[in-house]
Amino acid sequence: MDKDFLKQLNILYVEDDELIKKELNDTLKLFFKDILLASDGEEAIELFNANQKNIDLILSDINMPKKDGIALLHEIRKIDKIVPFIFTTAFTNHEYLIDSIKYGVNDYFVKPLDIKELLGKIETLSRKSKKQKKIDHYQNMINEYLDTINKVAFVFVFDKNKKITYVNEFYTELSKLDVDDVLDNEFNYIYHKDIPSEIINKQWEDLNNNKRWSGNLKFMTKDDTAFYSNCTIIPVLNENGNKFISINFITTKEENNRRNFKKKVLYNFNETKKIYRKAQEKIDSLTKELEHYKGFEKKESEFEKVKNQNNEYINNINNLENKLKDIRNRQELFTKNVNLKMKEISESTDSMKEQMIKADKKVIYLRREIKVREHYIEKIQKELQIKKQKVSDLEDVLNHRESQLYNDKNKTKK
User: Fold this and answer.
1) In the chain, where the domains are located
2) Backbone angles phi, psi at 25, to 5 degrees
3) Between residues 229 and 348, which one has the greater pLDDT?
4) pTM here?
5) What is the CATH code for 153-251?
6) pLDDT by residue (tens digit) across 221-255?
7) CA-based diameter of the chain, in Å?
8) A cellular component term (GO) from this record (predicted)?
9) Angle value at C-alpha 294, between 292 and 300, nearest 5 degrees
10) Residues 336, 340, 345, CA angle at the centre, nearest 5°?
11) CA gap 136, 384 in Å, rounded
12) Which of 33, 171, 196, 331 lies deepest, with the highest CB count within 10 Å?
């Protein structure tokens, strides 16, 4: 299954059962570009007429109100012989199947559907349909080209046996010969007798080797009047073998003028048709594109509303940015002042550190001095203690001596 190919397809899906339609639509949307939905045959016809160029396949139920699937198929085939048409049905009814085959249904599936098988069939039918549309398109172009050629050049066709099988009206008018006078004769029968056999033989040799032959040839009319052409003979292979198409533009002055005038008219006509076709395709394309812009005014109004809201948001953002800028400026100023204060504190701290170091040194010095002095005081105190003891001892000695003296004195008096 080629998913990329399926994604290019648009499907018209017709089903009156809303539940079945929703379930299958949800699945189909995963595989296809677009799904157009209809609930009955009448609605489907309206959608097909409005979107014919874009619809690649129709998938339809049979039993529906208003207009059933068979009637829908009949109407579609009046409009389009090629678009693939698949029936889905809950049961097989022989009368329905016979009618559907009669009106050109491509296939049918019995519900419940096998999705994989359905997708495979849609891909096969769509490829075949697209190929046929291309063939028809090129065939129409060829027919238009041949129609143009038939009006400005004389054409004859001969087969592998050299027998002429076709001459156009332009030749019969020019040569004044009837068609029956020419058919079944060898191709050189309409050449002028002055043409050497060597040229005719070389011409036939090239054509048998599937080579295109081009050159100037001389022809004659019924009354033996000569006329000339710029001739191109093209070998074409068909189911019956080779055939050869000879396209001749006459080269007499009068006929050239007539041919050029016709060519100019036909060219202008064909160019006008091309321009009209392209214009119509452009109109169809623009019409389809316009469908995507339905409700644009409403969306434009909503867009304006959103735009105004965005402007309000932008203004709010600008105000917030200004406030943020002011806060940043104040923060920078505050940071600057704090840095200055920190610098002052740092410098003051450094000074205090120096002073503390000096004070610590001084304290250490004073502690040493105190210890020295404490030792000295302790030493003096010890000396004082010793001296105090000596004084006390001396006082005891003096007191003893005084006591002795007093006693001695009393003894003397007695």
Assistant:
1) 3-137, 153-251, 263-294
2) -60, -40
3) 229
4) 0.45
5) 3.30.450.20
6) 888 888 888 899 988 876 566 788 898 888 865 55
7) 227
8) protein-DNA complex
9) 105
10) 145
11) 147
12) 171
